[in-house]
Structures are given as structure tokens and as C-alpha cells.
Design goal:
343 residues; single chain; 15 helices; alpha+beta
């Protein structure tokens, strides 16, 4: 499969899975995408066009669409059902989930962020790379534009002193100096994942604030003051969103605090502990952020500013679409492993 067929937008998305990465036998499905609806249900998007709109089909309607004999269902159906249950389609969650479900992928390159996204995340990566570079290069001015530049520094260090420090670091990590670049790629990838999720969180925070303010405004609206059902729904949604945001922000703070001094006493055991702990939260963080971002993007599309859509339309959308699936997000959060310390 040619990975260039996957757009950067799809590759970097939390809620879009280009089905060409899956081992499917139905050609029409290889051109489709699995996406999350505002109700957080997985649906197959057969086409998307700004004029014609989006042509979607439910997973359970596939046999009828493709004349499959469900007395002997094709493997495509089994794969799509499994993948449809995943809470997020970001590349980091998919790596873990597809491996756990024993679903081979057509090209491992398709489960990497786009070069454009990796470059955009450089500013987020600074906190993780600064102590590492300082450890090796001291106070020297080193130009970094992407994490690839960091790896290049370790592939061909042009400073004698840096070379010696790399030998010392390799010794602490119980690896050979020539294995340092591979280690750096693992290091970069795990912290790129944190940077990616952090960026996703930053991207939805303003819309979450606007949504919570919109619900406040509805509470004060004379038309809905006595609508107990709407009031209770909004109260539950606000409570859930605030708890989810607090939990996810708390995790990021724990990771950042625990990794800040990782290089002071680096060892193979310490690094792998950090790596395993962060990886174990990929599906939780990815799932919660995917769900919240789908909800908030739907809200922002319909109500791009405080005056768009009247109170009635907003109340209707909250009751019909926004509240659907909120319990799923809470279940993802509740299934998270216990957060252990990185100290």
C-alpha cells in the first residue's frame, strides 16, 4: 500500500481511520474511512464531498451493502466490528489496540504522525529535549527545528566532548554507543506522543470553555428555566467534562513532573519504566480526547460564535446529540490503570 494515499489530516486525526491500513479484502472499503459520529458511534464514510456531503453507513449494514453471506461472514466484517469498538483512532492508540487484537496492518509507516504534525509539535517537545541536550552539549547553542534534528545530533556528534558524554550515557543505559540513535528514536516517539495529546487538549480547550458558557447562558434563559430535564442533562455534562479535563490535565502534570529530572540519574530501567507508564495511558488519553474533540467540533461547526443559532436550537442539539455517548467517555476514563509515580 502507498502511504501517500493517506492525507496528513487523516493520519494526524483522533477520530478518523483510513481503512486502507487494515488487511481488508473488499476494494471499496479500502477507499473508505472509519469515523466517529457526534454520538461517538463508529460509522463508515464511503465518500466525503463539500457539495454532496458525507456518505455514511453503519457497520451492521455492511452485509446488505456488499451482499455478504452472514452464515459465513467474511473476515472484513470481524475486523471492522473489532476496530469499530475502539475509543480512538489516533496512531498511538491504534498501535497498541491493533497489536492486542492481532490485526496486522498493511504498512507501519501509516501509524506515524505526518512530518508536518511532527514539526508543529517541536515547541511541545522542547521541555523533554532541553534537559537531554544540556546533558550532552552543555550550554552550546544547538539549532533544533524538529526531533529529527535531535536524533541527527546523536547520529553524528561533531564535538569531542559530546562524543565522550554519549559513551557515558550509553554505559548508563546498558547499550552500545552506536545503539544510541535507535534509543533516541524510542525516546522521541514516546515524548512525541505526549506532545501530540497535549496539543489535542490545547486545541479543544477554548471550545470546551465556550460550550460550558453556552450552557450557563441557557440556564439563565427564561424559556428553559423550568425545564428540569435540560437542566439535569447540562449539570451532568458539565460535571463529567470538568472531571475528565481535571483527570487528563493531572496526568500530563504527573508525566511532566516525573520526567523533568529523568536525565539526572538515567538508567535503562528508569527509561523503560517511564516508557511503559506513558504507553499504558495512550488508549485512555486518546479515547477521552477523541470523544471530547468530536463533540466540541460538532458544537463549533453548528455554533461558531455566541450569537449563532438561537437558544432553542442549542438546547435541542444538547438533548439530541451532545449528551449521547457521554457515558462512554466516562467509562474510558474509569478503565484507566492506576497512576503510579515516576519518581
Amino acid at each position: 500500500m502507498n502511504t501517500t494515499a493517506i492525507s496528513d489530516t487523516d493520519r494526524d486525526s483522533l477520530h478518523i481511520l483510513p481503512m486502507s491500513i487494515l488487511p481488508l479484502e473488499t476494494p471499496a472499503l479500502n477507499r473508505a474511512r472509519l469515523i466517529k459520529s457526534v454520538r461517538l458511534e463508529s460509522v463508515i464514510e464511503l465518500f466525503s464531498d463539500k457539495d454532496a456531503g458525507s456518505g455514511q453507513i453503519d457497520i451492521e449494514d455492511l452485509p446488505q451493502e456488499f451482499s455478504w453471506d452472514m452464515a459465513s461472514p467474511p473476515s472484513d466484517m470481524s475486523i471492522i466490528r473489532k476496530v469499530g469498538n475502539l475509543p480512538s483512532y489516533d496512531v498511538y492508540s491504534l498501535r497498541i489496540s491493533l497489536r492486542e487484537m492481532d490485526i496486522p496492518i498493511n504498512d507501519h509507516e501509516s501509524l506515524k504522525l505526518s512530518p508536518a504534525m511532527s514539526k508543529e509539535l517541536t515547541s511541545y517537545m522542547t521541555d523533554f529535549t532541553r534537559p537531554l541536550i544540556a546533558q550532552i552539549y552543555g550550554g552550546e547553542d544547538v539549532a533544533i527545528e524538529s526531533f529529527d534534528d535531535v536524533i541527527k545530533l546523536f547520529r553524528s556528534p561533531d564535538v569531542g566532548k559530546a562524543l565522550e558524554k554519549i559513551r557515558v550515557m550509553a554505559d548508563k543505559l546498558s547499550i552500545k554507543p552506536e545503539e544510541i540513535p535507535k534509543f533516541m528514536e524510542d525516546y522521541g516517539d514516546i515524548f512525541l506522543s505526549l506532545s501530540y495529546y497535549r496539543r489535542c487538549l490545547d486545541a479543544i480547550e477554548p471550545t470546551i470553555t465556550e460550550f460550558l458558557e453556552a450552557m450557563d447562558s441557557l440556564r439563565g434563559n427564561y424559556q428553559f428555566k423550568t425545564d428540569q430535564n435540560l437542566g439535569k442533562t447540562m449539570e451532568d455534562m458539565e460535571s463529567t467534562i470538568n472531571e475528565l479535563m481535571a483527570a487528563i490535565t493531572g496526568r500530563f502534570e504527573n508525566f511532566e513532573r516525573g520526567t523533568k529530572h529523568m536525565w539526572d540519574e538515567i538508567s535503562a530501567e528508569r527509561f523503560h519504566k517511564v516508557e511503559q507508564l506513558i504507553s499504558s495511558y495512550h488508549t485512555t488519553i486518546g479515547g477521552v480526547l477523541c470523544s471530547l474533540s468530536v463533540k466540541m467540533e460538532a458544537w463549533a461547526r453548528l455554533f461558531p460564535n455566541p450569537s449563532a443559532g438561537g437558544p432553542g436550537k442549542r438546547a435541542e442539539f444538547i438533548m439530541s446529540e451532545m449528551r449521547q455517548g457521554m457515558d462512554k467517555i466516562q467509562k474510558i476514563e474509569d478503565s484507566a490503570p492506576m497512576l503510579s509515580s515516576l519518581n
